[in-house]
């Protein structure tokens, strides 16, 4: 009959602790009215309690900090930090100690150890310490694998490892909508929702445009010569609250001529979001490249390049149009026909030839009109 030998105890002990910021201490106030039996006793005890806020003892939020009592939540975009300690619990010197920390995600395995070199020896009651950092870039299950190998005084090679499993949650829910203007401008609305259980300070929400566009942020207004955020002076986003950010993208000069003939899916850019939580813990997320379906204009596109906002009654005014041949292979022979309405009248010759317009090219046209009716036209 085969008998398994007893399991040998290891000479080294491994401890792994997550490094997080402390939290504000909360207490439960106990008070009563003066006419009740305890009188002012409860209120005096709260005033003498060093953890309460002076002058606001009945508030639950204290002015002391408390260390985290559990592993806590980890959110995408935050930095995961952990303290790893290997202690020699034995009474003999241990040699060739190698500590390795790997982070296993659903798609890859990352080495987080600051050094891969072995420590020559570790005396009794001494320890090897290491702090690891990793910016979390995937959601889902993560496993921290800590492996320790060493050699005893008798020359025996020993090895053990421990696994620490944690979940990475999604901190923000980002939804985008595109609006195409009659001009070549594109408006992007980004809806950002706080999915965590604590308020967020939104430090930055910006759009990094693709090479084709210049971007203008529409999330502030000018008041008394100063630029003020439309969200107010406090940029806090409460749990489960949603905020809308708006951006205007305009094609660069070198791409503006081609804007009317671009078809299919085009890349707009990506959102860069930076936030801070309770005690300044920083998080950052970048979306993937945002794409939109360019609107189709058929064979010919007519767009207004310039038109006055206000005109005088029965006085000629000028507009500028641009005609674009959206075809990739056909040359077009254009004829201008001008049709009057009851309120707007053309000044010029109708039925004249504009000439030939080659594929993927544009023609600017200056025209003159006058209005015979007051009001909005």
TrEMBL record:
Residues 308-377 form the Trafficking protein particle complex subunit 13 C-terminal domain. GO terms for cellular component: TRAPPIII protein complex. InterPro entries: TRAPPC13, TRAPPC13_C, TRAPPC13_M, TRAPPC13_N. Part of the multisubunit TRAPP (transport protein particle) complex. Residues 10-168 form the Trafficking protein particle complex subunit 13 N-terminal domain. Belongs to the TRAPPC13 family. This is Trafficking protein particle complex subunit 13.
